[in-house]
Structures are given as C-alpha cells and as structure tokens.
Amino acid sequence: MAGLSRRFLQNPCFLLYSMQRRLVTKVASDQEAKMDKKSKRMESRKKIFKDIRKGYFYDFHEFRKRGGKRFFAFSEPSELKDSQLFPALKARTLSQKEVDLQQEFPGHVTLVLLWIKAYGESMCDKYRLPFVKHFHGEPLAQYYEISALDGFFFKAFKGVIEKNLRKERPADRHDNYLFFSGNLKPIKKKIMENEIVGHAYLVDRNGLIRWKAHANPAELEINHMLDCSQLLLKEAKRTLDSEEKVPWNSR
C-alpha cells in the first residue's frame, strides 16, 4: 500500500490510468457479451425462419407432387395401445358456443375435420358429406369441422374472418363448425401431415384417434372411413350397454 502511495505521489496519472484501463476492459467485456447475446438471438431467429420455410416449402412441394398425400388410410381402426389422444382443443362454433372437444368425445364416435388452408376445407367436405349421409340419425355419431387460423397476419384479422365465415357457411353447419385461433403448434406437431391439405380423424369414445386420413380421399378410403366408424360405434354401444347393466349400488 505504501509502495502504491509513493508511486501515486511520483506519478499522479498512475491511478487515473489504472482506473481508465479497468473501465475500458469492462466496457469491452460488456460489448462482447452484448454482441454474443445478439449473435445467439440472430441465430435463433434464422433457425426459426429456416424451419418455417423448410416446413412450408416441403409441404408445398409434396402438395404439387402427390397432392399432399403421404399415405393411404388403413382399412381398420388402430389398436387402443397404438392410438394417441386427440390434442386438447377449445374453440368457438360459428353459432358462438364455446366448445372443449375433449368434453364432446366421451360416449361418441366423432369425425374431426381439420384444415388451415382454404384447399383443406374442400378436401374435408369429401369426408364429411358421406359420413353425414351414412350416419344421419345415429345419436352416437357426430362430427366437427375445425378451421384453424395460423400466422400473425391472419390472427390480426380473426374477428373479420370469423364474421365472414358465419355469413358464408350454411346455418345448419354453424353448430359443428369450429373457428380456432389459438396455439396451433402442438397440434401441427402431433397430428398434422401437411399444413396445406385437410385432415380427417375418427376419434373414439375415449378421445383416442383410431383412424386418420388426409388430402383428397380415394373412394376406397371413404369406404374404410365408414367401415371403421361402424366398428367404433359397435364398441361404443357395447360399452354403453354394459354400463347400463351394472346395478347402481355396485357403481
């Protein structure tokens, strides 16, 4: 300490120089940390945009090449152990009723039709119309259409889009037509094959996806859908009958 004092007395600029050097070092270190943070942020953004472009262009290429179809639907429902739950989804119908799909599945066989792009809705109609015609009057069979909104631009105008849908779609579809503007990422990741096309899912009484198809259906796929629906309805009715036979005092 005494040596430092003598050095300061001999050279008054010593302390000032030392402090200045520390300050420059700290500023340089802070700038380096900021640059590193900025660089990581830019890399993260690039990765996000790359994933977006890759997903969209891959889907578009597949759509042009094969109509967006990656596989043909199976002829039988999947086994329970191989089936996944339909993702949680809450939306509002065009008749302005809030619907939690997970609450609608129990006790029913549900055809869920899902799309993002306008192309998808026309594809989904090709599944919906035969299903409605075949199971008209069947109380355990039901369907829901889901028009999903994706992208910041479209979500900014969701009120206008919903209003237009309400005007353009027939009133008899409003109760089953859901308009979804929530977080679509987990749904796309878990169950969607191609974002451009429409998707059809048969969901059983437990909320499990037991059959699925996408893009324009082949005639055979429509037959598979109807056959699988019949099998799932038999399952639902057997369960319902067995529950009704159980005495109340043993429940």
Automatic annotation (TrEMBL):
<protein>
    <recommendedName>
        <fullName>Mitochondrial ATPase complex subunit ATP10</fullName>
    </recommendedName>
</protein>
<dbReference type="Pfam" id="PF05176">
    <property type="entry name" value="ATP-synt_10"/>
</dbReference>
<dbReference type="GO" id="GO:0005743">
    <property type="term" value="C:mitochondrial inner membrane"/>
</dbReference>
<dbReference type="InterPro" id="IPR007849">
    <property type="entry name" value="ATP10"/>
</dbReference>
<dbReference type="GO" id="GO:0033615">
    <property type="term" value="P:mitochondrial proton-transporting ATP synthase complex assembly"/>
</dbReference>
